[in-house]
Fold this sequence. Notes:
The protein is an all-alpha fold. Helix content is about 75%, strand content about 0%. It has one domain: Orthogonal Bundle (MetI-like fold). This is ABC transporter permease.
Amino acid sequence: MTSSAEPALPTPDALDASAPSAFARPARRGSRTWQQFARHGGAAAGAVVLTLVVIVALCAGWWYPGDPLRIVATPEIWPFEQWQYPLGTDALGRDIAAMLAHGARATLAIGLVASVAATVIGVSIGAIAAWWGGWIDEVLMRFTELFQIVPNVVFVLTVVAILGPRIENTVIAVALVSWPAIARLTRAECLSFKSREFVQACRTVGLSSWRIALREVLPNALPPVLVMGTLVVAGAILYESVVSFLGLGDPNVASWGRQIGEGRTLIRSSWYLCAEPGIAIMLAVLALNLVGDGLNDALNPVLRKR
Length: 306
């Protein structure tokens, strides 16, 4: 009677050799994400427009040195009338192109800083509420709802009016109205991962709650938060434009919203004074929304399979 040979079990060395590198897995995942993002036509176009806006913001000081709010020519030169001022001048004789370029720098700075601050606050509160639950979750969620009772625009205008017309105060106001949505999204994502099998396995092997939350749950919950962050930047641009349009922005800083506010009295005779900064705001916000849609399709596993 012949006995069949038992299949040889793989040795640990063989497993290590056949397993993909720990550095290769994130690289391949990042490559797939980038390919999915690049296939999204709107996202690619938005990324190009956003890149151009960033380049203009970074080169504003080099292209237009000095104070962009200084008077350089006669008032109300129409666009393309004089090559020195391709976008014309405003009612005071200031170069509109210089103000748009420096306004891009201020607008993007407010949007990025406010988005980072709102993301840090929202992720921290949402993760703590979801992970520890109980009365901590109740208190933090009721605290979050307090910031959602007042309409966002009214809240931003109130904070800026109280703190004063400075760019730092605008950042604070925008961050205060933006973090609740991120907190609720983070809480929902963390709750969905809290009961997963890999979390239970981590508890079984004796990992601490802090290690599981920071090393396992939170990284998996961050992709939707990153998409929300791009929308927060777009919202921050709109909030800053509203604040500056109403005359509550920093008077020493060039702003797209302020240009529209100053040009609205001449909109019948010199409509370009409002049209040019309005187009800049539209393109920046549209580009950020398109990039956000592309990131959502690339990072969302359900949409990625489709």
